[in-house]
Every structure is written in structure tokens, then in C-alpha cells.
Amino acid sequence: MKGSSVTALLAIIVVSLILLFVPSSHGAISCSTVIKDVSPCVSYLKSGSGMPPSACCTGAKALAAAASTTADRQTACGCLKSASKSLNANPSLAKSLPGNCGISLGFTISPNVDCTKIT
After folding, report:
1. What average pLDDT does range 6-23 have in this prediction?
2. How confident is the model at residue 83 (pLDDT cuts 50, 70, 90)?
3. Whole-structure pTM value
4. 97 within 8 A of 60, measured Cβ to Cβ
5. What span is annotated as the signal peptide, if there is one (predicted)?
């Protein structure tokens, strides 16, 4: 495996393990679903440039479709917030990801977002 592939794989494993311990809200969406959807974005969010890869946008669109209720959006937000902290994602790339993929999540992907304020 290439170094970047190994790094991405390790990042996904670490995030997945961390998210096992993140309590979810009462929404139908789970952190494992969120991570599965955005896992193609890991390399891009850490060190990408330009537009996200198509697989990343496909996953982001699936996440947006799955996060249809307030509880789902709050759960997805908490999962992404934890993941962005542990991955040390580029804040600008994370913030611009939904717009670059042509979707709206209803919240900003940031380690500083207050997920309880999402409606």
C-alpha cells in the first residue's frame, strides 16, 4: 500500500473506534453510517485541494439524504465533529465540502460547531 493509503486506512480505523464510544442521539442515523458515507473524503479533508473526489461527494449526498430529521442532523453533526477533531481535518476543506458537493447538511462541519443548536 502507498503511504497515503495506509494513512487514510488508519485514520478511518481510529475514527471508527473513537465513534464507538460517542453516544448517539435518538435519531435513526448512526455514527457508523456517517463514517461509512464520508470515509471516501478522509484523504481530501486532510490534505486535498480543489474539488472533492466524486466518491466523496457521493457519500456526502447519501449522508445528506439520510440526515432528514433534526435528531439525525444532530447525530451526524456530533459524529463529524468528533471525526474532524481526531483526523485533524483542514477546517476550510471541511467547511466547504457540502457546497462543493452541491448539498446542504444544515450545519457546518467544524470541531467548534454546537450540534445541539441544529434544527
Report:
1. 48
2. confident
3. 0.74
4. yes
5. 1-27
Residue 82 vs residues 3, 31, 54: alpha-carbon distances, Å: 24, 10, 24
CATH class label, 27-117 = mainly alpha
Residue 33, C-beta contacts closer than 8 angstroms, at least 6 positions apart: 63, 66
Name the nearest CA neighbour of 69 among 35, 109, 33, 29: 29
Q: Which of 105, 53, 55, 113 is nearest to 84 (CA)?
A: 113
- Contact between 89 and 48 (Cβ < 8 Å): no
CA–CA separation, 82 vs 101, rounded Å?
Answer: 21
φ, ψ (nearest 5 deg) of residue 51:
-85, 150
Query: In degrees rounded to 5, what are phi and psi of residue 110?
Result: -160, 150
| Distance, CA of 72 to CA of 66 (rounded, Å) | 8
Grid coordinates representing 95?
467547511
Asked if residue 94 lies in contact with residue 109, where contact means CB atoms within 8 angstroms, the answer is yes
